[in-house]
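A protein record pairs a chain with a discrete description of its three-dimensional fold. The following entry can be read in just this way:
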Amino acid sequence: MASSKTGRAHATTMVVADLDGTLLHDGETFEERFLTQRSIDSINRLHDAGMTFVVETARPVSTGLQFVDKLPVDAVAYLNGALIDFNPAASDYEMLTSGIPPKDGHLMKIGFSSRRACEVCRYLLEELPGMEVGIVMDDVRYTNFDVTKYWKTQTWRYTDFNDVPEGIADKLILFPNPEQWNRVRELIPADFDVHISEGSLWMLMSPDANKEHALNILADHFSTPLSQTASFGDDLVDISMLQQSGRGVAVANANPDVLRIADEICPSNNDDGVAQWIERHLL
């Protein structure tokens, strides 16, 4: 367990939580993962006590908003930070996925042009024909494969990457076979960062679209020192966020690399570990 922050404890005023594998209980399918009443109640209580609550998730709006709507969320970073909503109470699905920023500027999009996204997809397929690739933009997946094999409720369109609309893409998604991993790493252009989720989904994103950067943006927005933040996560994409936080807490079911760097470990997601930690330390 990490110990670099030992002796530097500060009062926590902002709590940041990942969803899948952290705040949500597991389900038979992606769509069956769920939030318990205990978690809802504990987060409501900490919010009533004056603390800020933020969600940072790899989920897009289509599958993340349903959980945000059940909680007193002050801000959300969707798509690992590619879309930041500073005022969820004023947002709805249409606004978040229109690609048109609201007049009050409470949304921030950190991505890259769809034209560049298509160039990269075509390049990858030239080198690795048949690999499953796609572009996520405004909550639509433009892919060369049937998305429903992974996610049953997400909107998608078949494409050869010559007919994707103009816009700002959030990320590229890849499902390389294990034997393709080393070659894929060699092929990724320098203007993209790689995030691997749940051991199979590769996400190519803007270098500024990540949970660590989102944490810094949100802490600044709420005038909260990082030393007063507590972040919860389970996967590799959560590591930098946990390391930047005043208290980086891994759930017991987390990836071994996450457990290794965490300041603290709470019970697993299926044991309401985040709620238990909040109840013990903040309420």
In short: The mean pLDDT is 93. Residues 114-127 form the longest helix (14 residues). The chain is about 30% helix and 25% strand. The domain at 12-108+207-280 is CATH 3.40.50.1000 (Rossmann fold).
